[in-house]
Amino acid sequence: MATCRYVLSTGDTGVLDEPIYFIEGRPVKADEDSYYDLPAGLKTGQFIRTLWRAILRGLTRGAHRLPLIGSGDWNDGMNLVGVQGTGESVWLGFFVMSAHAVATIARTRVISPSQNAATGRLLNCARISSSMAGRRVVPRAYFDDGSPLGSASNPECQIDSIVQSWSVLSGAGDAKRSRMAMEAVDKRLVRREHALIQLLDRPLTSRI
């Protein structure tokens, strides 16, 4: 998102050709959640190629037509939401929506046929995620069994500030409903007397 905003604001496309170094290691095995090891070496590639690798990795779809959450999302504390491979992340859907600007760059910089075709997939995923933006309290995710996380029906984590905020940051919602999402944050998560904003409410004590 930051890269796209920079390129589209400044016109500096040269940054996309800058060489990027990243470590190389073996893929995580099917029965592993993670592993610790020394990297096998370093690889280099154009910056834009690393962007595409990240985006293509996120273009998955589950039962609710949202990206699969996997076993991490951004928060390691949610590692069991989709550990079986079918849980979904609403936040990731909004994040992909915000990355639609990558498609604008891709139209002028075709890297490969497969990546060019992914431009259409990216925009389609953006449209899918936008369908979630019209809710006052947006679910955070869906467990492997299809039940929601971050919903009024949950005894824990009835609201999550990450996905509420990204319903605005992504531009996926209309102004009226985005304001409703922020009003819910203000009511449920802002604690002015303690000068803090909670990540979620109610606290998680089980299942994850």
How would you characterize this protein structure?
The chain has helices spanning 2-10, 47-58, 90-98, 101-108, 113-130, 161-169, 175-188, and strands spanning 19-24, 41-46, 88-89, 141-142, 148-149, 159-160, 190-191, 196-197, 200-201. It has a single domain, classed as Glycosyltransferase. 38% of the residues lie in helices and 12% in strands. By secondary structure, it is α+β, with helices and mostly antiparallel strands. It is built from 7 helices and 9 strands. It is globular and about 45 Å long. α3 packs across α5 and α6 (161-169) runs antiparallel to α7 (175-188). A 3-stranded antiparallel β-sheet has the order 3-4-5. Strands 1-2 form a two-stranded antiparallel sheet.
The first-to-last residue Cα distance is: 29 Å
Low-confidence stretches: 133-137
**Main beta sheet:** 3 strands, antiparallel
**CA radius of gyration:** 18 Å
At the first level of CATH, the class is Mainly Alpha
Mean pLDDT comes to 79
Helical stretch tally: 7
What is the name of the CATH topology?
Glycosyltransferase
Number of strands: 9
Instruction: Give the second-level CATH assignment, the architecture.
Output: Alpha/alpha barrel
| Structural domain tally | 1
Order of helices and strands: HEEHEHHHEEEHHEEE
